[in-house]
């Protein structure tokens, strides 16, 4: 039996506890939180669970194989570091850490300790995002031109991170996954309307290899939740609307094909192909369940981790570079990937 | 009777001819086009119309008060210049000219000749855009934070202009009109996927006074036509969907208000106000008819021109600066407005 | 050249004139209307057109091969009768006549005179309705279970006919066409809220052969235009939304299949198949153009007429029986089809 | 403390147990089910709960004040009867019983025993349905003309009841509640496509006082879930779409007003008022919670019960009359309300 300790029982932790509890080959032994009230609530839901306000009781417990971290972002690094140093496998909520430097340290440390370090980029475990990847990989969309995403809502305002760090990790993680690539450069423009110094609206433009552009719009200020990703290819276009319950993915079979012929007046015509729209049926499985199961498999069978520390670090590096670009008024900055 | 000559009877010219014909106090005397076939077609539709392949027969006709120009963009400048110099009032399709320099010359010339120079920015004559302006001016949205627009479709590819020059003039004209302001700076990123050297996708970020941001996404590559403008304010949000026939404007009565209180742990809460959505009924009048009528009024009554040469020049300057920004990889460039 | 006279230049007549004018092998010689003003307007649009206030100038003109009738419903019968008796082919707007008896007379008369009698059931010339018929005929939907239609809007209230006669002819014509069948019986319930004695809302239930049910909801009182037809089959369901411009037809690949197995407790399980949704691209051709062309072909080549007098009479018989059912409080009445 | 026993822990029972558990002034003492497995599951979720396979341990327990019945429809009557006779207050899931006769007996018995009998018509505890009632009562819609509902999906096929008994109770309960009236008569047409003798599609037409018509379409065969209720009034129309998460209610401010003037030719014009659409914000409270709380209040404070036995009986009588109408091919039958 694979034994887990969970640190942080606030907003997201209980979901992780529930999912790990429901796995047949895993057990949650202990959970930690600074709030006694949250611990009491966990105890009520899972009477067998041990609780503590000191996370070191988990990292120091030799009966615990892996630590799951669902605390505020600023504490990801110190806790994950201590857990890895104690020889634990680590599952940490996104983003991996507060800075690229911290993230780099964690990835290196996990390598040195030969432990699994996984980041909770849940979207890449959804049926929708995996369908998108399959469609792209199959060549159905043709050559990918650009990706455009909108992730806006009335925000759960964060005191320690801006809207880019809050929402864009989803988009960057999804894009890196479906394009199977890392962005080369980023330019970002944002503004802080509500709380001085913390951007609540931002527009990012990423350049990927092979001339693929990506545009990300994130906001905490829009009173209409939108979660939309558009992938435009040379043959078809795919639109992923995560707010829709039944029609998350639409594939538009239309495209533009350049005609080879130009007449003597230098005019040219582009032939248009308009076609059907299809809305594929997706599976209903809970992505968090798949993610938790995947973590156990990575530890037990050494499976390659889909949202590995390295994947999480790529996201962090893009976030860090975006912050610098925003400070420089939207300058296009190359993302520097460290040797690992 | 106000007498008009129309130059260019291709894609858009016939619409202008029809609308001016239907005005009671205006008459279309002559139309010019390089194609005899188009002229024959116009003659068939309007037997009273005189036709010519030489536009100078219009600019040189003392019986013509005003010239309407609906030719390819590159010829706007020379024809408009000649018409103004001949003492004609000029209505020219958007964009005003091929470059800010040309546009500046035309605006100055119109001033010197004391003639009306109007640009065919039709959107600011629509019921929807005027409703938006009214809503903003009334303060219903609160302080404006940012505007975001998407104008994408499978393109009518142009051989001489890129997607920014083709589609973004609508957005810039609308934004300048509803915000009653000129953008201070612009950064733009684009790419040429289909025809080398001509951007078919672009993302622009504009900074307006009072910290209002604007983001424009234009594309010729998306096989699903979108015409969406979102205006986010401190109190409400307005979404303008020009593709919808019956529900073009939606106003979301939701907002975020910062609560003054922070508890001892430094946490803070933002109170959310969620409210009703309203979809106002809009008038059905054809905007082109209103625009044509407005042109006649400007000439006859000296009315202040809503889409004046100066308005069209502001758009041109933004387009020109966007082109330079795209060449510099998305640099944020200040827009230089000339003395007029 | 096939020569046509058009009687009635009000709401729909000008559309018919325009379409027949645009056919290469047909000519509109004369049009008739009681209003001189309408005739002047037609003359202005088509200078070659002869006009008259006396429709007998058309039926009596040996230079006219066919008469197109777009007058109020109550005059369809006398005019069509006179035209057929004069040896003209006749195209009459829907519904064919004011009563089944009149309709029967016209169909018989056309047979005796060996002339084409066609009714303007335009919908069965649309790309959408023909796509539905193709999909049904291909077996893609499986066995057809039932059809349900909603055709509601704020009405153009008619003084001489009720909402069933105004709107339901479309639905009955479409259903008879796509099912390739005649309804066996009908029950109808309606009410007259606005004008006493003229139903403005009604619900009809039709029984077709092979246990196919059809339900029709028509109303002049709904301030939101709906044009929706749902065809439910054993394998798939098709929804036709005529208000949608780009997504008129959706095919839901889901169905219910009875499992053969029942366990010992008498319970049974139905296996569900949920699948993709597809939105086929439809052609954009104007149905009225296709309809007018079809009329000429029927006359010239003896093509079998898709919306023949007999088809129009089936619709009339259903309307007449519906009226009787409404008077009897919704009694299910068998539709009596006359020997022709 | 108000003590409750719950009989039936299958599909719906656990929801009731959870909600009653969460009420501060109520306690669930015992639950009964024929399946030991279900009882074990309940015990695991609520360790304090007593369990039994014999419902008479609840009806015979003097420590239990009220019995909640969530068993198959056919057992509602015998269990509820026994519980009432034992002096318990009774909350029974909809429909109240298997026949109007059974329902009448229960309502009379509850009256004689002076006990609360409440039926689980949950919809009339939703924010949406209460908003509709408020809007109607306020006169905002004007005089109500008709109500039309569609409640279709791929069915959870029932072996003992048809689609009318499964789905239409919701619509009838909602209509009776929002119109504050009982239907006078009903005509129904249905068909059994999948399982012989059990209708899986049906269309009902109800007549309410003051000439209000209602049409109900229910089906287990449509692979696209629809839950739509349209209320058309003389001034406005309200559409309630229960499938939509954020825009459940839309009010269309459009209407038809008869103009008093008729010109000499007997023509008449109807003036149209088109106006805004509004989408009111609704509360998010769980209706089942409100319903359970209401049951406790009815018992403890003698509050008038919104979904009383009499309300449930009205629904039953309409269902029973519909069944008879379907057997008679859609005959319009008067609903006979018993003296209570």
Secondary-structure blueprint of this entry?
The structure is a homotetramer of 340-residue chains.
Chain A: E1 2-7, H1 13-22, E2 26-32, H2 36-45, E3 50-52, H3 56-59, E4 66-69, H4 76-85, E5 89-93, H5 100-113, E6 117-120, H6 127-137, E7 144-154, H7 163-179, E8 185-191, E9 201-208, E10 212-219, E11 221-233, E12 237-241, E13 249-252, E14 255-262, E15 268-273, E16 277-279, H8 287-301, H9 309-327, E17 333-334
Parallel strand pairs in A: 1-2, 1-4, 2-3, 4-5, 5-6, 7-10
Antiparallel strand pairs in A: 7-11, 8-9, 8-17, 9-10, 11-12, 12-13, 13-16, 14-15
Helix pairs in contact in A: 1-8, 4-5, 5-9, 6-7, 7-9
What does this molecule look like?
Chain A is α/β, with parallel strands linked by helices and 340 residues long. The first copy, chain A, has two domains: 2-115, NAD(P)-binding Rossmann-like Domain (Rossmann fold, 3-Layer(aba) Sandwich); 124-286 and 316-334, Dihydrodipicolinate Reductase, domain 2 (2-Layer Sandwich), CATH 3.30.360. The first copy, chain A, is 32% helix and 31% strand. Chain A contains nine helices and 17 strands. In chain A, the strands form three sheets. A nine-stranded mixed sheet of chain A has the order 16-13-12-11-7-10-9-8-17. In chain A, strands 3-2-1-4-5-6 form a six-stranded parallel sheet, with helices on both faces. In chain A, a hairpin with a 7-residue loop joins strand 12 (237-241) and strand 13. Chain A starts with a strand and ends in a 6-residue tail after the last strand. The model of chain A is unreliable at 255-273 (pLDDT under 50). Strand 16 (277-279) of chain A pairs antiparallel with strand 16 (277-279) of chain C.
